[in-house]
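Box 3.1 A note on notation
Throughout this textbook, protein chains are presented in two layers. The first layer is the amino acid sequence; the second is a token string describing backbone geometry. Keep the layers aligned when reading.
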Amino acid sequence: MKKLPGILFLVFSFILTKQSNSQTVYDDFTVLVIPDTQYYTDSLTYPGRQKIYYNQMQWTVDNLYNNNIVFVSHLGDITNNCRHDQWIISDKGLKKLDGVVPYGLAAGNHDGDQMNGSVITRFNSYFPLSRYQNQPWYGGSYPAGTNSNSYQLFKAAGMDFIIIHFQWGHSASVRQWASSILDKYPNRRAILSLHKNVGEPPSTGIDMDLWNDVAKTHANVFLVVNGHHYGENMVTNKNNFGGTVYHILTDYQHEAVGGNGKLRYYTFHPGQNKIEAFTYSTETKQYYTHFLLDYKMTDRTSPIISNIKITPGGLPPNDSITISATVTDSIGISIDLVKLLWETVPNSYIKNVTMIHTGGNSYTAKLPKPATGVKYYYKIFARNMIQNVTTTTFTDQTVSAEDRFNDDSHLTIYPNPTKGIFTVNLSDDLQKDDGSIMVFDELGRELFKQNITSLPDKSSFNIDLTPYSNGIYFLKYYGEMPSITKKIELLK
């Protein structure tokens, strides 16, 4: 059993996204899952929450291109108690996805006619087979004439996938049907989606009927996703062929506001043989969970972008900003092109400039002089000459004219690198400031925040990163003075 690693998020959020309408073999792509939405669609018990459900669907549509979302899976409990008013809300939300992106539904126990997911007449009334059967990605269903259990086919980054959706209380005949479908498509990489499988942490239990009859006996099954039980959990085990299968629970319904719009999405990085998992809230606009899964997709790797640094040309607000990065290719193929894409609004990146090769694996480019208060959103694009592989890293980190990095004597830290505990020293000016000191990890998650005025000793204090993994972290000051960022290296 493998539990989810510690939640890590920081100043730079690295996600690889699609750059053109036609995929290359190594394009990154995303599969999104929607956990239990029952407390959003029950607008009589929870007035106004249907807006959260609609926001989830709209976010999916709005981010289809930037995240290259190729499939969406609902993990069940679409409704709270199967009332028609809840199905109407569910239907209205999912219509945003119709004709836009392939998706599938795993009916939960709350989607059953008598709160029993084995009888789902209303589910099939609002989401009938006729709604999907003519879609090129819809493979088929069971029992005949229903959408109760279904499978979908999609292609991404040159790979063929199949995803099977199971209703609550799947019978032996359903599992036999699913097994026959996997037998039919042995060369498609397989995902299973159902409402109940992994339990709440620290449980290591899974649906053994599904495991023994379907997942364990097919080499192409690598991921099983579910909701139902509250929280996040992951169990890993080996199938009959020695392959790793990840069983992942995602359910936020018992958090504030029924989950506050949290979604889970998995970005596949074929060039790195990794799947990157993110939890994002459409309401708070923040990321909460991040972890990586190993998954073999290709023997060849795409360019790797690392060591991104931001350096103002002098003191803000009227100096150009230099962004530099290291771009390498692990199999020694020459880098053909590196570009900096940027805009003053997020999710646009229309403007671009070729980054200059400054020697070795280093590349650099300058952003124009920003006006005070203007923020830049940017990402970096790299292409390998032989493979014609595109790797794009974008970041929600913004660069503003107020930022100063790493060279400000008002704030010093030591030791750096640190084994965990390091000391922060503040200048006399900062000690008088009503600002805050924060620490972020590499994916933007806030790990520490302290208001300067509440510090017992404002001149010098310690911060402990011992609970966190080795890597790069960022300490940042925000206040009345220009902001300051310091990079911290944790080496235990």
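Residues 29-294 form a domain with the Purple Acid Phosphatase; chain A, domain 2 fold (CATH 3.60.21.10). The first strand starts at residue 29 and ends at 34.
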